[in-house]
Amino acid sequence: MLRICACLLLVSAVPGAAAPTPLQAAIGDPGWLHLSGNVRARIESLDDQVRPGFMANEDLFSLRTVIRAEIGTGPLRLVGEIWDSRSYTVRPGSIAGAGEVNVLEPVQAHAIADLGPVFGASSSLVVTAGRMILNLGSRRLIAADDYRNTTNGYTGLRADVTARPGAQASFIYVLPQMRLPDGFDAVRHNRFALDRESFDTRLWGGIVSLDHAIGPVHADASLFHFVERDAPGRPTRDRDLTTIDARLCVEPAAGRFDAEIEAAWQWGHTRDGLAAALPVQSVAAGFVHADAGYSFAGGWQPRLSAEFDFASGDRRGGRYKRFDTLFGMRRADFSPGGIFAALGRGNMVTPALRLEVAPSRRNDGHLVARALWAASASDAFSTSGVRDPTGRAGGFAGYEFDGRVRHWLVPARLRGEINADLLLRRGLLQRAPNAPAGATTAYLSAALTAFF
How far apart are CA 382 and CA 394, in angstroms? Predict the structure, then answer.
């Protein structure tokens, strides 16, 4: 792993790589057109893969280019954004798939209409129509993934309402885009295929937010309904899920305590797999996130926090109880996705301690230590795929240590990032019938991102 990080760091020494010419300056900075973009080169290395069915050790080089254009400055604007996501070292047995490759995809192509104060003097209404990315609330249910080499795209309508300063709401009716290509051979060779959307998969709902609901406390509440059905050549789990969510938080600030608590409940029906012969089960599932921290004043701006995450898992008989995080983010709460992606918001109980530091405007980092249990010993642990249907392997899964360091080599232009994770597999992750051999999974990634 060390050799690949050294190779990537050498890329930063290439003449001209540290100071790309901004696109906007290159076109003379016209007021009616704004261009921006970024390119990220990343190497990932994984030793002793925890997810069954894939090669034990893997190195992956990925390149992601994003170009964004916005036309107009008045009440009507047009936005287009192309993502070109490729991976160049995909081998047989690799876990790489549609999460790593999406070639020349117009993820965003929409119009934004600012309709003004239609609900009163201090109100506003902004409507977005077309292809878009979404980040709503805490992003634990609806998010545009950033660590992953590809992102989540949606096609449809969004309305953002401000009733008064500090009181906002967002409503959506969208068709989630199905990322293509999704076959191994097409992914391995970075083949082009336009993502598809259809009414076979729909997502609608909204979130209401209130700043200073009680003193410094921010509050939001949301409801989302997601439905999918089989289409020719595309079997699904036939999910029909309604999720309600509520969150209270006090934002971190130097010299004071902060806290956040979020809880969600989910119901509807689903199959536990893609096979049409599987029975449809009613759903009763939920998750809870809680954290409390303190930010110290000082040059490094350290913040120390205690965290707790619970996401329900399925059990034999009765309702289906595994929580579905829909299109939620992973990295902000847990360890990286990519070829690691062992932890996600499903069948997991995990307390953690987190230390975050920001020594300067150019540097930041964090270190997290957590213990891991399965909420249900008979369900697959989190997103690892490791499962003991009998439950005899127990619920304890081990410990994880997660760290990240970011540094602006050139402020606002070139940033380096290193992620390192150590998963000490115990109990369930060693004794389950499909658990891969090994007691320690190590992940390391190094990336350079140029903004222009």
Answer: 14
Give the count of beta carbons closer than 10 Å to the beta carbon of residue 358.
Answer: 16
Confidence of residue 199 (pLDDT cuts 50, 70, 90): very high
User: For residue 424, how far is the Cα from the chain centroid?
Assistant: 23
Peptide bond into 181 cis (omega under 30): yes
Among residues 307, 303, 311, 448, the alpha carbon closest in space to that of 369 is found at: 307
The single residue listed with the structure tokens 């012969």 is: 277
Residue 9 to residue 76: CA distance in whole angstroms: 43
Instruction: Assess whether pLDDT exceeds 60 at residue 20.
Output: no
Phi and psi, residue 169, nearest 5°: -150, 145
For residue 215, what are its two tokens?
Answer: 């003193």
Question: Which helix or strand (DSSP H or E) is residue 214 part of?
Answer: strand 201-214
Torsion sign across C-alpha atoms 256, 402, 428, 268: positive
pLDDT at position 193: 95
Q: How far is CA 172 from CA 5, 75, 196, 222, 276, in A?
A: 41, 20, 19, 11, 30
Residues 288-299: what's their mean pLDDT?
A: 95
Q: Please tell me the distance from the alpha carbon of residue 332 to that of residue 341, in angstroms, as a whole number.
A: 13
Q: How far apart are CA 72 and CA 70, in angstroms?
A: 7
Tokens describing residue 381: 């642990």
Whole-number Å distance between alpha carbons of 138 and 247: 8
Q: Which of 74, 85, 77 is nearest to 107 (CA)?
A: 85
First-to-final CA distance of the chain: 29
Give the pLDDT confidence of 33-65 residue by residue, as tens digits: 999 999 999 999 999 999 999 999 999 999 999
- CA dist list (Å): 18 to 21, 41, 123, 209, 452: 10, 13, 43, 40, 11
Q: Give the whole-angstrom CA distance, residue 200 versus residue 367.
A: 41
Give me 91's structure tokens: 């081998």
Which domains does the chain show, CATH number per domain?
A: 2-451 (2.40.160.100)
* Angstrom distance (rounded) from CA 49 to CA 97: 16
